[in-house]
Amino acid sequence: MKIEALEIERLERRLREAKPGPAAQLRMAPNPRLGHRPYTEVEDSCLKAGVLILLYPRDGEMYLSLIRRTGLVFHHRDQIGLPGGRLEAGEDFVRAALRETQEELGIAPEGLRVIGDLTPLYIPPSNFCAYPVVAVASETPVFRPDPREVAEVIEIPLGHLADPDRAGRETWLAGGRSLEVPFYAFGSHKIWGATAMILSEFLEILG
Fold this sequence. Notes:
By secondary structure, the protein is of the alpha+beta class. It has a single domain, classed as Alpha-Beta Complex (Nucleoside Triphosphate Pyrophosphohydrolase), CATH 3.90.79.10. It contains six helices and eleven strands. A hairpin with a 2-residue loop joins β9 and β10. The radius of gyration is 16 Å and the shape is globular. The mean pLDDT is 92.
């Protein structure tokens, strides 16, 4: 999917408007989603994290990057997610998302332009509220992943995610019960859970 400057401007305008919110997120939620509550009910008590959807050009197409976390991190070990992490004292979610992306992937915030944000999402297993930020890089970034936190950088063409044929569903067993799990397929990876829910809203806004 090629995104020209005018389309970035359109996306930026859409991100300022009313967002599809939970209705779009829940399309990619496991069923049943244990402990599901809207972030507005837990915002005063949840841990807060800024996460980044980073858009950038590569080979004439627009990409975004996900990471597979190592087994050394405290939360979401070995899972695929967006770069980001917990807010530090005095930070807002934009600053936290940019700082964590620099720490995890070595991408300086000076080369990025923040164009908006998405609806926050509560993640019951870790008690985090994730606040997604959308940023654009004008050039292909050079990734320098921190080996303590990032096991793999997963670069995905935006057009791949937007293809309905890349979305699937499976029944998984977890904790002795069956879960219907929607996911986005990319190579050997299955992108599910909170990450898929965030991307679902983003793709609807992208249109």
